[in-house]
Structures are given as C-alpha cells and as structure tokens.
Specification:
By secondary structure, the protein is mostly helical. The protein contains four helices and no strands. The termini are far apart.
C-alpha cells in the first residue's frame, strides 16, 4: 500500500478529481451536536459517534490536502503562474497567426488553379 500511496503523490491530477465534498460530514457533525438527549447513555454514544465523524472529516481534509499538492502548477506562486499564462497566450497568438497565414496562402494558391 505504501508504494501505491507514493505513486499517487507523484502522479498529477486535475481539479475535477480533487475530492472536496465535505458538506455531508459537516452536516452530520452539526446535527449530532444540535440533538438534545435526556438519557445520558445515549448522550455518550452520540458524543462518541460525533467524535468519529470529526475524525472522518479530518481524514477527508488531509486527503484533500494531499490531492491539492498533486495539482500541476501548484508549486508556483501567483506571479510565476501569471508569467507562464502570458507566455502561453503569446504562443497561442503566434500559432493562430501562422495558421491564418497558411490558410491565406492555401486559398491564394487554389484561386490561381
């Protein structure tokens, strides 16, 4: 299992793959805390159940943190990301211009045939 976890940490994932669905667990915890019980034994059981839910939430948060660390580009700060974005935009613009020139040349050649 350790090798699987290690390979999971290294392989990049997409934002859509990050599991950030915490709301159901948070809802269950709040519901457990809001309930009022007259019988102390039920109160103790519910308190233990709530503690387990809090631990589940902590595990889920830790897992989400580990997934976020695997997102490509997460190691760059905002300035580096913006700089890379500008470079990619420039590359895209240049490629579009080249493609347009190529299309124009092709249409020019076909008009003479």
């Amino acid at each position: 299992m350790e090798n699987n976890e290690h390979s999971e940490r290294l392989s990049p994932i997409t934002v859509q793959e990050v599991d950030v669905d915490f709301l159901p667990i948070v809802y269950e915890i709040i519901r457990s805390v809001e309930r009022e019980f007259i019988d102390n034994s039920i109160k103790v059981q519910e308190s233990q159940g709530c503690s387990l839910k809090v631990l589940d939430l902590q595990k889920k948060l830790d897992y989400a943190r580990s997934q976020i660390k695997r997102l490509p580009g997460i190691e760059f700060n905002k300035q580096d990301q913006l700089k890379q974005f500008e470079i990619l935009q420039t590359q895209l613009r240049l490629k579009r211009e080249l493609l347009q020139k190529y299309r124009n040349m092709c249409s020019f050649e076909t008009s003479f045939k």
